[in-house]
Amino acid sequence: MTMWKRLAARLRDDERGAIAVQFALLMIPIAILTFGLIDLSRTSVQKRQLQDALDAATLMAARSTATTDAALDTVGDAALATEMAGLGVPLTRENSTFALGPNNTVVGAIQNVTIKPIISNLWSSGDTHVAAGSTVMRSVNKLEVALVLDNTGSMGSTLGSGTKKIDALIDASKSLVDVLAAAAARATETDAVKISVVPFSMTVNVGSTYQNQTSWLAGKMPTTGYGADVFATNQNRFTLLSNLGLTWAGCVESRPAPYDVTDDAPNTSAPASMFVPFFAPDEPDDNTVGVNQSSTNRYRDARTVSNPGNPIMNNWLPDGVSPSGTLATAWATRSTPIAKYGASNKSKVLSQAKTGTTYGPNAGCGLTSLMRLTNVRATTQRDAVKTKLGQMIANGNTNVAMGLAWGWHTLSNNAPFADGVNPTTTDGKKTTKVIVLLTDGDNTNDTYANPNNSIYTGYGYIAQGRLKNASGTALTAGSTATNRRDAIDYREKLLCENAKAEGVVIYAIGVGVSSHSKAILQACATKLDMYYDVNDADELTSVFNTIAGSIQNLRITK
User: Fold this and answer.
1) I need a surface site. Which of 175, 214, 406, 437 has the fewest CB within 10 A?
2) pLDDT (tens digit, 9 = 90+) per residue, 142-189?
3) Residue 105, H or E segment
4) Diameter of the chain measured on Cα atoms
5) Exposed, middle or buried: residue 354 (CB in 10 Å: 0-12, 13-18, 19+)?
6) Using CA atoms, how far apart are residues 252 and 397, in angstroms rounded to an integer?
7) Cis omega (within 30 of 0) on the bond before 258?
């Protein structure tokens, strides 16, 4: 009995089984709580991963070249899908949106993403839905764009489809302006896009309204750098024009080296840096020379007499002058006397020299004047730029170097215009400067069978020695047309190198150009794929629209 009593007492006092029972009873709520915590943790982790993925996708959309909601959404959705791959979160394009926000932002959003719980839906109403949002500020650049466009006589010919190149150029360049103006209208800045227009031939027309700008335009050709004057003594071109009752058409001559390939501001203390008005002198003729004189001293008037041996390109004044009316037979002597340009000869000026640009001091200045940087945000200003483009005509020979120089001048913060943003300022660091250069031929300065062996161009007569070759040697009247072409090519190459070194982005277009010019234009472009080869005039609009899109992208991605 004692033994059984002791056993009963041990069984009564043994509590080990009670703990096991209690643990068994508590196991169910512990499991539920554990899986519930796992669901909460999983939801939190996936929401964080979703937010990280959205941040990355929104940043990628903001860094893209997209400028519309639809384009941004396409880029953002693709980036988000890549970021979410392997995370196990069901996501479709309907769940996410990427769009332009205020103040140059891109806004990304994700809504109604379903996360399947493991156990919590046993007591909850269903699946867990999460959302996320992200906003990225875009670093947006302003644009200053110079359209440097060939307006030489060859642009009046057709290419490929039969459309005149100049007509196709007008339509294409207007289309480019429309694209960039639309980008300006979408921008929050009021001066997001500015455009200048620089038509060029063998010279550039800056506009006759600048005649009194003595801080950068010198009526008298400086004796330093420019070489010998074409007159017997140094003369003020504006005074000569006034004497004869004529006006300046607005064209300028090239500055001498090295200023012809730089953006250095003109300064009266450095005479060679100043610009000079274009003035083509009267060339000798035989309208009063005795017919009995030997043929070596007779110079024919090319307007009325066929004489291929001695073509006179620009005869617009009689060589005899008052009071004596005497004539020298030497070409140089007859070409330079100051009295020819005196008021006494006013009534004798050739009529075509008074209004046109085929003869007279403005011979060769038949192209439209340039247009300075213009803000195209407003419709009226956009249309003003398009109107200027519509005024372009095909006239003259080719000097790409002069066109490039003035395209750069319009973008510069230096005189003569100083319209461009200073690149060293805060605003300047947010501005991209662009030149769109188009030409259809080789640089040209032909030889002629007369004592000048050239016509008067932006370099004056070749004998003045203002055009230098790659060796720094001034060309003379004895130079060949190839020598002159190569020298202008070299000036063009230097301009491209100098402008790009200063941060100017250059697009180049060759319209039916030779392999020689193509190589120069390809080297001039900032990148090889920024050169466009056009073999049909009707391709120009497509090319200009492509460039417009690329320029628009520079506003976002630089």
Assistant:
1) 214
2) 999 999 999 999 999 999 989 999 999 999 999 999 999 998 988 878
3) strand 105-115
4) 173
5) middle
6) 15
7) yes
